[in-house]
Queue: 3 jobs
Job 1
Amino acid sequence: MTTTPTDDPAGASPTPPAGSPDTAAELADTMTRAIKRIRRRTSERLEPYGITPGQGRALRALAHAPGCELPDRAMRLSDLADRLHIAPRSATTVVDALEEAGLVERSPDPADRRAVRILLTEAGQAAVERIGQVRHEVAQEYFGRVSPADQEVLLRVLRSAEADYAAAMPPRRPASPGAAR
């Protein structure tokens, strides 16, 4: 019988021999399981704050935008969608929820009245700090027993793979004119 990831109750599948054609597929499966576990735990830890992981990503993207606290330099909705690799409509839904929670404010773009800029509120800044703490705690729970040297190797390899993959992919199409900004 061949064991697949869904056959094994522990979620692990047999380790292929090093360098076999299935090594990359096994790596992808293992990363997927890790990401799901980390995301699920992060979601559980953010739930008391009323923040989803997707909203947390949006808040972090806004907080790391240069000049995010200044209305004339705040990020456009369309730029947020691009940074999150989501459709502008999905970004609108995320921002709607964040605005309702008092974590962001919309402001008209002085250079383009069709565009909307998103500003973090004080409550949004505080939420970004909580999210950072939760991310740190969950990462420590998951990777804490992995040696710092192995963590560095894993990080270096994943950054290299991501850079190579991104360089080989065709550029993303820009959003259509008039899309949510």
Note: The two ends are 53 Å apart (CA to CA).
Job 2
Amino acid sequence: MSESVTVRSCAAEDRDAVVALWTACGLVVPWNDPASDFALALSKSSSTVLAAIGDGRIAATAMAGQDGHRGWIYYVAVDPALQGRGLGRRMVAEAESWLAAAGMPKVQLLVRETNQRVLAFYERLGYARSPVTMMQKWLTNPSL
């Protein structure tokens, strides 16, 4: 990237670029509509989507949210052509800072079984596996 990278909160007009990045990074699955996830995060004061901007475009993202007890990080994505340059580490740090400013004492994230290659990245950032079983129930019909 020829210019310095800045991080800012996304706005509605960033949606298409963000969804394209998430798709390019393999984060999109049939049962989650990324455009809806983006819009929902921006519609609540308890969540945000952060973007790293470089060379006039979105190079990386991290979605952060909190439930009043803990913070969560989702959709950490770095343009595949820019991976390995510290942008992922920076986006996680930015999301952690956003959550700390919201008063969250801890942060958690989920890694899909199909994305095991990212575990070492998070472990290098101080994340550890939790001895828990995550369960879910759909309150609406997921679009498959």
Note: The first strand starts at residue 6 and ends at 9.
Job 3
Amino acid sequence: MSETGRPGTKRSRIVDAAQSRGKESKPKGSNGGRSSGVGRIIIAVYGVLALSATVRAVYQIMMDFGGAPLAYLLSLLAGIVYIVATLALASKRPGSWRLSRYAVIFELVGVLVVGTLSYVLPALFAHPAVWSHFGSGYGYVPLALPLIGLWWLRKHRPAATVAGE
């Protein structure tokens, strides 16, 4: 059948492919476009934060744990959250979108709580943590990134999740 609907006329495979592409929600094995375009940048920034926060926290814990144990442990927690977020955002596995969302929400809550506490109770943060002062030591990226991440995840929500929530 042709584009006009007349039987007997050959239909172009290119036209068929273009029309079917619009009907599919996403290709098999895709993570909803989260790891392309801006998503790649977001994943890369999460990866850099994961590496820098984790290495810094491990170094501080090994070298001077008594100096600011709460700050160092919170930095390690931040690093672990960034690792989880990075892997979940990059993953194509079922459930990775939801895990990404939970990790990013946890990160946002952590930045807001620790950022507030670092101003209200500065004695607890003798040395800065990743999330202290709302991530000022990291150029406020820890504050901005979860907001951008939540926006990106909302934009790339899987169809099954939209119906379920």
Note: The chain has a mean pLDDT of 82.
